Amino acid sequence: MVAQRIREGRVNRYTGVKTRSVGEIVFHNVINLFNVANILLALLVILVGSVKNALFMGVVISNSLMGIIQEIKAKRETDKLSLLVAKKARALRSGRETEIDIQDIVIDDVLHLCSGDQIPVDGMVVRGECEVNEALLTGEAEPRLVNVGCNLLSGSFLVAGECWMQVTAIRGDAYAARITDRAKVTKKPNSEIQKTLNLILKIALCVIPVLGGALFLKQYLNGDGSLGEYVVTTVAAVIGMIPSGLVLLSTMVLCVGVLRLARKRTLVQEYACIETLARVDVLCLDKTGTITQGTMRCVELIPQGVDEGEARQMAADFAHLSEDDNATLQAIRVAFPGGMGEKTGQIPFSSRRKFSAVEYAGGSLYLGAGEVLCPGEGEKWKVYYAQGKRVLVLCRSSAPLTGYSLTEKPVPVATLILEDVIRDTAPDTLAAFRRDGVEIKVISGDQADSVSAVAKRAGVESKGCVDLAGGRENLERLAEENTVFGRVSPEDKFELVRALKKNHTVAMVGDGVNDVLALREADCSVAMAAGSEAARNVSQIVLLDSDFAGMVDVVAEGRRAINNVERSSALYLGKTVYTALLTLILIFAADFYPFQPVQMTLISVFTIGVPSVILGLEPNRDRIRGRFIENVARKALPAAVLLLANILTAILLGGALGYTDALRSTMTVFAAGGAGLTILFYTAMPMNWLRGGLTLAMGVGFYGCAILLRDFLSLTPLGIQELVILGSMLTLSVVLFPALSGPMGKRSLHNNE
Q1: How many whole angstroms separate alpha carbon 746 and alpha carbon 752?
Q2: Is 323 helix (H, G, I), strand (E, B) or coil?
């Protein structure tokens, strides 16, 4: 049957979000607005016979190649890691249960679904009973009870029980293909960098044609040179105003971040979420599976009304009869083997009910939270909660199960004391977040005092703990004032994250079905690969080693990316602003434009291009402060003012001293280069061997090329007088730039360590 369905084309071909193809990567890195503009400008200078002034295309080509190489590397690593968390399904094939890829599901397949599984295609229940959460589809968080004959929609997930479902719709006909995947494609992180770059590009598109056209007309109508000279100087002005390398640099830095994280077995499913991580100041953790190993051990059994042997046997019977396979049941099975009996009914565990039950010939057994099964008796368990232990009550009843709720108060027969196993890496990981200024919030469905004790054992510095079992009043205040939250339902997690987002940038780490709503709501969502499929599918980042310690690398990579893009953006925008202002001034001034494209290329390569790439890939763990556009402006504007002042000084002094236009142009190139190197020096502060070596190498490179390639760069020899003037200007630049930057600008320049 399966082979026939495949031949008929009635097989699921999962069309989830994928990385761009190599062709698309090449296209987007080569064919973009600024590259096209640079190509047209290069053709103009070539057509007027000045081939050397098209040298700036070398920088454009180099930037594009670096962007292509890094993005392809990131794509390959991402695709490779995606295979490790690829969606799977359990299908009945030839009478046996077989694990298959979701894309291999065919119409009429029978799939086995368990608690935590996301439903991959549409179907109808043919066996079993379960609870389904359709919150990702409808927004309604209340689970829906389904049994034989009920329909299941792809994109929802099981929160309790298990069932067998016959497939009725696949591919584009399935609900997930029409709704869930489309929503996942269009929902992107709120990228402040992208918004700022888009704003800069829009402004550039409006300003560059106007200033470039006005400069050309001014020279053509009022000058006494040739058409070729006017074209060359206009092109020099225009390429100085184009921040084309900035867009490619930001893409490259993010791709390198993805690549570095992939090598640390961290799958980034949305590139832009790396930026969001840089701004995270609150990290919400689900206790189980993150701070703890996700395993438990039963450390004590306290009989109630029966002897210890009978209590142990009932615990073993419950573990034997229950089909739940969570950490609690695994610990009980290890502690109490040898269960007996045949199950005739079951209420699977769910975080909403906080209990599970089994029915057999002797009646019913219940296991769950004491405040649910034995309300009013919580005082006697406080001593265990204070030690971070978990308390479960085992009860029995002679009545059969009816539905999924308690019909009568069962009789307690034993109290089981369990404890979580803390991850070895948790204390060091949490300490690292404290040093980075990230506040930790621990959220759990367990009792608040117990969670607080576990968190304390792991090294969490708690401001207070609160139990949300009583309701969500004043949740925003509670979220700010407390660190540990207990008895939290999936909806409570969602509301907590939403409340925290009002004043913070929030990341959520989880691994279970009960974390899905909170993961979806968080600014940045991180899932454990060993957790539920539903959690992995809605998360932007997946930790393949399922170790919370990997989050330190993730946050550090995010901060490196945004800090370095911010720093490099200031270099590019400083050039754009001073070139635009210089062009505007010279449109109205009776003077010539001092640069040729080849000279602008020399300045850009050694003061912006090479340094921005090297500094953009440097480690940087600083906490992000302020808005991106404001931080960039505080760095770029003083840089633009210094460059413009040096250039105008060189032009005016040269005119006053009777220098030729060629000599004034040479003076201007050296003045701009010296100012650019000064800005690079302060941008690289505080110095280390890499930054110091980079600054020195760029200085040697700039002045060396200016001297050795003098004729090619259309520069003239300088005399003693000109060298003294330039030396004085360079000295003044080094002394005055910190003062020009001001306290805010200076602080932003020195946040790179």
Answers
A1: 12
A2: coil
Predicted pLDDT at 717: 92
**SS3 state of residue 125:** strand
* C-alpha dist (Å) from residue 428 to 168, 421, 425, 458, 461: 49, 16, 6, 9, 13
CA distance 219 to 593: 9
C-beta atoms surrounding 185 within 10 Å: 12
286 classed as catalytic: yes
What is the pLDDT confidence band of residue 752, given thresholds at 50, 70 and 90?
A: very low
* DSSP for 368-428, written as a single string: EEHHHHSTT-GGGGHHHHHTTEEEEEEEEESSPP-TTS-SS-PEEEEEEEEEEEE-TTHHH
Average pLDDT rounded to a whole number, residues 224-241: 85
pLDDT of 467 > 80? The answer is yes
Q: Which helix (H) or strand (E) holds 157?
A: strand 157-169
The answer to whether the CB of 422 falls within 8 A of the CB of 291 is: yes
- Extended beta strands in 235-281, E state: 266-268
Of 219, 192, 1, 17, the residue nearest 93 (C-alpha): 1
Of 740 and 368, the structure prediction assigns the larger pLDDT to 368
Tokens of 397: 């009843």
Distance CA 615, CA 416 (A): 57
* Fold category of 296-419 in CATH: Calcium-transporting ATPase, cytoplasmic domain N (3.40.1110)
Please report, for residues 151, 156, 197, 535, 565, the alpha-carbon distance to residue 36 in angstroms, rounded to integers and kept in the order given.
53, 46, 18, 42, 23
Instruction: Measure CA 517 to chain center.
Output: 18
Name the active-site residue from 104, 181, 286, 324: 286
Residue 119 contacts residue 154 (beta carbons within 8 Å): yes
CATH of 88-186, one of 2.40.70.10, 4.10.910.10, 2.70.150.10, 1.20.120.80: 2.70.150.10
Rg of the chain in Å (alpha carbons): 33
DSSP 288: I
CA 481 to chain centre: 26
Closest CA to 670 of 565, 594, 564, 583: 594
Alpha-carbon distances of 485 from 175, 347, 449, 492, rounded to whole Å:
35, 27, 9, 10
Per-residue pLDDT of 355-414, as tens digits, reads 999 999 878 999 998 888 888 777 788 788 778 788 999 999 988 888 777 767 889 999
What backbone phi and psi angles, to 5 degrees, belong to 718?
-105, 140
Task: Please report which confidence band the pLDDT of residue 631 belongs to, taking 50, 70 and 90 as the band edges.
Answer: confident
The CATH label, of 1.20.1110.10, 3.40.50.300, 3.20.20.150, 3.40.50.10140, for the domain at 191-246+557-749 is 1.20.1110.10
Please report, for residues 329, 351, 412, 566, the alpha-carbon distance to residue 315 in angstroms, rounded to integers and kept in the order given: 10, 21, 12, 59
Tell me the whole-structure pTM to 2 decimals.
Answer: 0.69
Among 671, 669, 674, 668, CA closest to 651: 668
The listed range with the strongest mean pLDDT (121-130, 234-243, 463-472) is 121-130
Q: Is 114 helix (H, G, I), strand (E, B) or coil?
A: strand
Whether pLDDT at 216 is above 70: yes
| Environment class of 514 (CB within 10 Å of its CB; exposed 0-12, middle 13-18, buried 19+) | buried
The ranges assigned to domains in the chain are 88-186, 191-246+557-749, 262-291+423-554, 296-419
Contact yes or no for 347/323 (Cβ under 8 A):
no
Q: Please, what is the angle between helix 22-30 and helix 56-84, to 10°?
A: 150
Residues 397 and 359: beta-carbon distance below 8 Å: no
- Tens digit of each residue's pLDDT (9 = 90 or more) over 290-342: 788 778 889 999 999 999 999 999 999 999 999 887 778 989 999 999 889 89
